[in-house]
Amino acid sequence: VFKRFVEIGRVAFISFGPHAGKLVAIVDVIDQNRALVDGPCSGVRRQAMPFKCMQLTDFVLKFPHSARQKCVRLAWEKENINEKWAATRWAKKIEAREKKAKMTDFDRYKVMKAKKMRNRIIKHEMKKLQKMSSKKGKKSEKAQKSEKAQKSEKAQKSPKAQK
Amino acid sequence: MAGEKAAGEKKPGEKKPGKKKTDEKKPAEQKASQKEVGEKKKKIKKHHASRNPVLARGIGRYSRSAMYARKALYKRKYTAPETKIEKKKKEKPRATITKPVGGDKNGGSRVVKIRKMPRYYPTEDVPRKLLSHGKKPFCQHKRRLRASITPGTVLILLTGRHRGKRVVFLKQLATGLLLVTGPLVINRVPLRRAHQKFVIATSTKVDITGVKIPKHLTDAYFKKKRLRKPKHQEGEIFDTEKEKYEITEQRKSDQKAVDSQILARIKKVPQLRGYLRSTFCLSNGVYPHKLVF
User: How far apart are CA B119 and CA B266, in angstroms?
Assistant: First the structure.
């Protein structure tokens, strides 16, 4: 039922407060509500932090409880948490949200045009498929055409994401 | 004594301004000064000792009028040279002007007063108004421009017949209104004035350096023309008012001159032309206070 546990070395993402948006490692548990936390590679000083503002990630580091900052840093860099984090979908979603909020009027126009073009291409392929299937009704040909449509869709997705 | 005399003779050209000497000054020095006057014609005469003997400190023997006579000031009346301002004041303004006689008794000329007597005197005098401070007329107001609006910024017009259109800002005019152009071929907005308050400034800028805007595009050029000829009072009052606005040739040529320069720069930015063609609108879930322009 639960997959991520609060343990020594668990990397957590801070969701609100003064350090919102940063990653920290749990170094020790103080009591039911707080943990001793340290983020040497993300600019968070060693401090107590309530569990409520932390969200657990999938990453766990190996260091003994109450290890000093140097050890935490070594473990962090050994596991390359910063890069791994940037590659997760979670971090990418956050980044996309930020970018969307920063869009200017001109950017919104460009996105609108790109989306429109993409949808047009997809619709075009779909219509072709539907026509094929209704005309010929052969299962093998349908499979071939749907493969083609998927390939062209993927080709269009990448230029749009580069925005 | 002798030394003083010698000193006086040796330095004939020395002026001793405002130096009121004591009674030790000898008439001998006066003679010397007279001689020197003869020698150098443009020499300044030496000052006489005080003709008003002192009775006690601060109190002289003779009164002001007596001193006037003793110093012979009736003979010495000087005036300062006339300054330019006084000269200007002396020039009397023209009182009358000569105009030709028109109308029935045509030909010839008549003399007309420039400054006429008042044709009405109010029965009660208007009380003097209190002095006010800092109330300037509109022409002297300070014009401000938002920092986000610089030449070349794309603005979104919010009011007027061109509402929602995206437009290029050129410059601020003397009354504070913004001079703005479509360009005309892109969105049918001509060279026009827009009010700063009714405009959203986007962060998109067109590089307008080096674009020359003609000098005659001022507020007077754009001001609406109103005919004022109240001669027909029996009817036909509304016919003289220009209902249909005609685009003059000058406007067309000015538009072309400005737009040709700007269009070249717009073409360089990809998709900018289409952006200027589009209009701004809000839809569900779009809140202006959350948008970054």
Answer: 63
- Chain B residues with CB under 8 Å of A117 CB are none
Predicted confidence (pLDDT) per residue in B9-39, tens digit:
444 444 444 444 444 445 545 554 555 555 5
Number of cross-chain residue pairs from A and B with Cβ atoms under 8 Å apart: 32
Pair of tokens at residue B5:
């005399």
Residues of B whose CB is below 8 A from A105: 154, 156, 166, 202-204, 280, 291, 293
Interchain pair A109, B293: CB under 8 A: no
pTM above 0.90? no
Point out the residue among B204, B290, B291 whose CB comes nearest to the CB of A106: B204
Residue A140 is given by DSSP the state H
The whole-angstrom separation of Cα A86 and Cα A89 is 8
Fill in the amino acid letter for B136: K
Higher-pLDDT residue of B92, B185: B185
pLDDT at A40 exceeding the cut of 50: yes
pLDDT band per the 50, 70, 90 thresholds, residue B7: very low
| Closest residue in A to B153 (Cα–Cα) | A106
Q: How many CB atoms lie within 10 A of CB B80?
A: 6
Positions of E strands within B67-223? 96-100, 109-113, 153-157, 166-172, 178-181, 192-194, 199-205
Beta bridge partners, B69, equal none
Partners of B165 on chain A (C-beta within 8 Å) are: none
ipTM for the assembly: 0.71
Question: How does the average pLDDT of chain B come out, rounded?
Answer: 82
